[in-house]
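Sorry to interrupt, but I need a hand with the structure work. Could you write out one complete protein record for me, on any chain you like? Could you add the entry underneath, on a fresh line?
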Amino acid sequence: MEKVAFILKTTAHPTRIAIVQLLAATDSLSVSDISEKLNVEQSLLSHHLTGMKLKGILSSSREGKNIYYALKMREVIDVIQCLAACTFL
């Protein structure tokens, strides 16, 4: 239950959930790609990405000037899907 609580606390924002769902569907995306797909300003997006990376939810790699993010903790997908399936939401 501690891991579930950690995941819920770390992803408890609509933008963060959208980031996880987007990255669950692909290997990795650049910050600019995520920003474009979610229609979120890069500065705000970078704040969310950095926080989730520091907590171990995401990983990142640099290629030239671009930083690419990927989902590191795959269990996050299961928790989000489980919540989305709840009938009371």
Remarks:
- The two ends are 21 Å apart (CA to CA).
- The domain at 1-81 is CATH 1.10.10.10 (Arc Repressor Mutant, subunit A).
- The chain has a mean pLDDT of 92.
- The chain is about 55% helix and 15% strand.
